[in-house]
Amino acid sequence: APVDGRTLEEVRRAITGWNGYGEDIDFDWRTVGEYLDRLDRGFDGRGIAVNAAYLIPQGTVRALVMGWEDRPASPEELARMRELVAQGLEQGAVGLSSGLTYTPGMYAGDAELTELCRVVASYGGYYCPHHRSYGAGALEAYAEMVELAGRAGCPLHLAHATMNFGVNAGRAGELLDLLDHALAAGADITLDTYPYTPGCTTLAALLPSWASEGGPERVLARLADPATAGRIRRELEVSGSDGCHGVPVEWDTIEVSGVADPALGAHVGRTVRELAEARGEEPWEAARRLLVEDRLGTTILQHVGHEENVRAIMRHRAHTGGSDGILRGAKPHPRAYGTFPRYLGHYVRESGVLSLEECVAHLTSRPAARLRLPDRGLVRE
Ligand SMILES: [Zn+2]
User: Fold this and answer.
1) Does position 13 have pLDDT exceeding 70, yes or no?
2) What are residue 270's DSSP bridge partners?
3) Is the model's pLDDT at 343 over the cut of 50?
């Protein structure tokens, strides 16, 4: 049966066709409940090896109701999104996530997000945004989420709460002051970080949001058109794309970590600047060609973090360990599998940034409390 008038194939293309994720997975679930049942079954009928607490992805809800359209929701569309969020929470999700530098989630304004957060709060869930900027405007973007969650009366968990890019070097204290102020005023806020400086995303995610409107085929057409591609380039390299956190891109900080097309495997482990130099072309041209040839499926590491920021944030009392892992590509970011050993090995044993007891709390009781798991995370009678 179709979902909101779309066939299964259309829904599948709208979600997985975007970046090649999941193309080898039998995409047989249609709801949060069916997805959780699928995890219970696993691939061999014996379930998965880890526990899962699932967040409803706001961008997916918006794609189901509105497609990839860059406009505000109508009252009817907002009502349908609220219904889908309520349904997901009833079926076992623990909250709502957002990717607000990713399309189509970023097309949602604050009023729309606030309405969805009210539904989340009414079920006792929490909102977990990847907010609108981790670069230029990061502090404003954090403040926006704190205000939005406060308006909705919704608990807030800030995902991978980093302060990245040159503009934020040494500014972790300003983020922590903002959080301390809100916590002192009674807000329910937690945050997580991964214990590494590089970030990880897709190459296509860096594009301006207007260039991603309408879905993957439209993006590829824009990249093939010289005038439009030139406009994308100017935004990326000069003014700063919203997909790249408002910061002009530095091509030597972007390293290819995975490709969708195995024929492009030799690109993995090299920066965009290195790829360009090897062919005697401009970095933008190398990036554009890779996006087109890999049909937007390329994943990247972004070397834009600051060690002093990472250390300051991981010591905050509302902090929990997180991986933000993307297990994809030939050389995935090590945070996908190394986060917990690195907290305990590097930041406790070698660097002494955290005491063992403090770090164990970051990795156990604090996330368990956010997930409202009363029988996990503490040793007690
Ligand atoms: Zn993110």
Assistant:
1) no
2) none
3) yes
| DSSP character string of 71-83 | SPPPHHHHHHHHH
For the segment 227-250, the average pLDDT, to the nearest whole number, is: 94
Mean pLDDT over 284-305 rounds to 94
Least confident of 178-192, 215-229, 306-320, 328-342: 328-342
Quote the CA–CA distance of 197 and 150 in Å, as a whole number. 30
**Alpha carbon of 129 to ligand 1 centroid (Å):** 8
Residue 88 Cα to ligand 1 midpoint, Å, equals 21
Question: Alpha helix (H) ranges present in 153-282?
Answer: 172-184, 209-212, 216-224, 226-234, 272-279
- CB-based contacts of 213, cutoff 8 Å, min separation 6: 68, 69, 70, 103
115 CA from centroid of ligand 1 (Å): 22
Instruction: Look at residue 327 in the predicted model and tell me its pLDDT.
Output: 75
Domains of the chain with bracketed CATH: 8-159 (3.20.20.140), 201-302 (no CATH)
| DSSP result, 296-309 | T--EEEE----HHH
**What backbone phi and psi angles, to 5 degrees, belong to 18?**
-60, -50
Q: Is 362 exposed, middle or buried (0-12, 13-18, 19+ CB in 10 A)?
A: buried
